[in-house]
Amino acid sequence: MFTFTSLRVDHAFVTRADAGTATLGPGVTLAVTVTPGRRYDAPIPVLRAGRLRGRFAEVVVTTPGFRADPVTYGDTIAVRLRTV
């Protein structure tokens, strides 16, 4: 199990009327803060919904020494963390 120190998503919302559709609005930024010194070998799930619409315009890791690549599979958006 992975725990983010902080996770912030701006301008995203889940519409209940659409039975679990997650919609990411234009210009959505995902900001992730992680605990330094840990290994993050597998993609870390960030958002799961019955249906996903949109994408993150930017993914930012606020912890120095890391970068994140968004990964989408099925009903899940995840991030793969890498050291820089």
Question: What labels would you give this structure?
Answer:
globular; 3-stranded mixed beta sheet; 84 residues; disordered N terminus; mainly beta
- Give the helices and strands as they follow along the chain: EEEEEEEEE
Q: Work out the strand percent.
A: over 45%
Helical content stands at under 10%
What composes the largest sheet? Answer: 3 strands, mixed
Q: Please indicate the count of domains.
A: 1
Low-confidence stretches: 1-7, 10-18
Helix/strand/pairing class, anyone?
Answer: mainly beta
Count of helices? 0
Globular, elongated, flat, extended or rod-shaped: what is the shape? globular
Number of E-type strands: 9
**Rg measurement, Å:** 13 Å
What gap, in angstroms, lies between the N and C termini? 23 Å
Mean pLDDT: 75
Seen as an oligomer or otherwise, the chain set is single chain
